[in-house]
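Supplementary Methods S3. Input chains for the assembly prediction are listed below.
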Amino acid sequence: MRLKIDKLGVVIAALLAYGAFLAPFAQFRANRIVPGEARSILEALPAGLGAALLAFVMISIILIVLKTPTIVRLVLGLVALLVLAVLIGLSAGHLTPPENTYARVSPASGFWLLSFAFALVTADALARLKLSPFARVALLAAVAGAIAALLMSGAWDGLSILKEYGSRAETFWLEASRHVVLALGSLAAATLVGLPLGILCHRVEALRAGVLNVLNIIQTIPSIALFGLLIAPLGWIALHVPGAQAHGIRGIGAAPAFVALFLYSLLPVVANTVVGLAGVPRDANDAARGIGMTDRQRLFGVELPLAFPVILTGIRIVLVQNIGLATIAALIGGGGFGVFVFQGIGQTAMDLVLLGAVPTVALAFAAAIVLDAATELSSNKPGRAA
Amino acid sequence: MKRYLPNLLRLAALIILIAFLVQPMLFEPLLKPLVQANAPAVYNQGSLLSLTLSHLATVFTATLAATIVAVGLAILVTRPIGAEFLPLSRSLVNIGQTFPPVAVLALAVPAVGFGEKPTLIALFLYGLLPIFENAMTGLSTLPPAIVEAARGTGMTAWQRLTKVEIPLALPVILAGIRLSVTISLATATIGSTVAAKTLGEVIIAGLQSNNLAFVLQGGVVVAVLAVLIYDAFSAVERVLSRRAGRV
Amino acid sequence: MIEIDSITKRYGDTTVVDNVSMTIAPRTITVIVGTSGSGKTTLMRMINRLVEPTSGKILIDGEPNSAIPGYELRRRIGYAIQGHGLFPHRTVGENIATVPTLLGWEKSRIDAKVKELLTLFQLDPAAFGPRYPHELSGGQQQRVGVARALAAEPNILLMDEPFGALDPVIRAKAQEDLLAIQKHFGTTIVLVTHDMEEAFHLADKIAVMDKGRIVQYAAPEEMLVNPATDFVETLIGAGERPFRLLSIGSVGEATEAGEAEGEAIAAATSQRDALSALLWAGRDALPVVGADGTRLGRVTLAGLARRAARPQ
Ligand SMILES: Nc1ncnc2c1ncn2[C@@H]1O[C@H](COP(=O)(O)OP(=O)(O)OP(=O)(O)O)[C@@H](O)[C@H]1O
Ligand SMILES: [Mg+2]
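Predicted structure tokens for the full assembly:
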């Protein structure tokens, strides 16, 4: 058998070698805000483990540089990520002096590089394997399960980000639920309004350009400005419309954030509905008319089902975008993970920034995978041309 | 007449924008009703013009860097030598787009500190994706007969790339840059939360002092810039693609 | 002269061109015919090395074509591609100038060449030079494609179904142009076509390909008289043989002394078309005129009938 070199593998191996041997694995700080000191793999892990990790990385480098079967690379990537996740937790315990509650240990560039490189191996293997939608969602669930298990087991409790979490466990879940409500709620509202609006724009050509232009312009207003601009009208409503205040409508807080996200969400929903309906084959429409369907029957029986995958793509865009934008709501008192991000920026406490940013990214990532899978399933239904 | 109307509107918007940036006080009466009696109606903590220019400079620098890197990468993965990187780069583009800009910004701060740098990094990273995706599509969907003809006339690989492939893919690449610039113009405002000099300063000052006029002027200036730049790019794309017969 | 010596091309396990050898004489037109997928395009593209052979070699004027870099080789060989392949972002003039520019010709020489070729193809240089390809009709694009292939005055011109997309009228015109150009420049032409009529009309020699092999390589008359296999015979079409024979020659060759009444036929017309004209006019003879309109003589039904009979 001749050994073949994988070009991508060479790049990843370089990342791995740099991350393992030259960059610090963990960072130790005497307290929350002082600058950190770097710790290499050998310093950051208990005696034998550090050497074992280096050996593991070297074996991985060999496996990755050679053209190994894709499934081997996938397993290697996943195992390596799990190993890194466990070891960084151990290093926290190892580096923190006993009984010291101020000291902070966080992952450093070496850890991130190693994780990134192994994530690349995994992502590349997944892209080549072309997994079915179900398999992708199952893998996502397995990874989420593994992370949850690591969190519950306390393996990561020594890490600084979890210490930040420890001191705000209750607020964390409150902000998390606000974040989800903001992102999903505005999506639901935008779908309820955007879908009929899209259908209307499809039917009434005169409306189309105007509506889409207005929605396009809304997209160009920077999010923080739009959030801010909605404070005034909503404040006015709160004061002058009876019962508004009782329903939580206030000038600052979640209401303007909700409305802003809703406005941003309209364009992808409406535009994709229009594109999806326009893409319905003429034949299908003619046939539906030919067999005597009413307009309404045609809409629900033919047009919408055929346009569904495109509409779903719009919803995916909106959801991922909203999960990200919802962080900005914190600037106007709307809550969400942004609270931690901006507090952290204010206090130059990066652990706190991470406490807000990491779940946001994870949430957006998971939403993208699930909705991509749904889109693929809906466009592969039997009897449908791709 | 109807055909010129949009262009007249654009010209008017540009003139009003420049007038506002150079002589903001002229517009004070318009903004006055938005604020409490003794609060300033026009941003007074710095020059709007210089903030706008540094906003544009930040976006320009980040987009330029993103364009060079993204187009370079797209060229690499569409050559036979870089083909092995193609599946991964496609999925990286998909994954990358799920990263919220605020998160990228916030995560850049620990690495480089406060100021312009994290904003530049966030805009750069976020700007890479649309350009890369479009450049890759543009370069990999050229009509095979034309690529074949380029080979057949005896062009070297480099000549094919520079004289045929890139010119033909240019409208699609430009569309990617246009998307990237529009996103960056809005995202740069968030950079002010980490102390970058952008129009976000005006908006944040407004949010902090409950001054609606500040929020409005910051937001509208960015929006008008975005619309004008978007339209300018679209116009160039149209000319180029009409030229390339791809209408 | 092109000498193809036991050339083979394999993609994986399938052999697309199988041990083909043939010699193409200079200043002739060789037409390759065969069913779809028989390897015609592949064989031709190995001549200018757009496809590298698995084994075997090709000599051009005695030199192996692998002696110089592929791109230099291709600048010396004209290539008109299936479906023209014009660069949509360049004007007609720039398209034609592609290879001369790559070769570093002087601007004035390039301009003169572009003008010459456009005129030759009956496209007004002032009107068509600055246009973009999408502003041309399909037939005009096709002619520009051939003009581009000829621009650097190559000794060899490879043409892959160059007239496939043209309507019958323009197609006939393009064939006449090609014959004229071949005479004018003395180019060696290798042409692939699916149209047997076209093959017999243009070819000095025809190569029939089947499943990657050359089953017969012969002059058209020879092929009509002695088809090598049943496949060749079906390809020619048994019922078409006399007419194919007539397509080979022009009226000029069949002109007899004498006078005739009726509408005159040009000497360059194929004998087959002359036969049609005679039958349609219901006459035994028609006058023949040269390109300049001078009377050359007449063509007769009986004369053509003799020529259509199986050669002895
Ligand atoms: N790059 C390639 N990889 C694999 N197979 C190929 C490749 N190029 C051509 N082939 C195969 O080789 C065979 C011959 O192809 P070729 O293009 O030479 O046929 P052709 O005679 O020109 O057909 P047509 O008349 O349809 O143009 C076909 O079966 C084709 O599928
Ligand atoms: Mg062919």
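The pocket of adenosine-5'-triphosphate (ligand 1) is lined by residues C 11, 16, 34, 36-42 (CB under 6 Å). The first strand of chain A starts at residue 26 and ends at 29.
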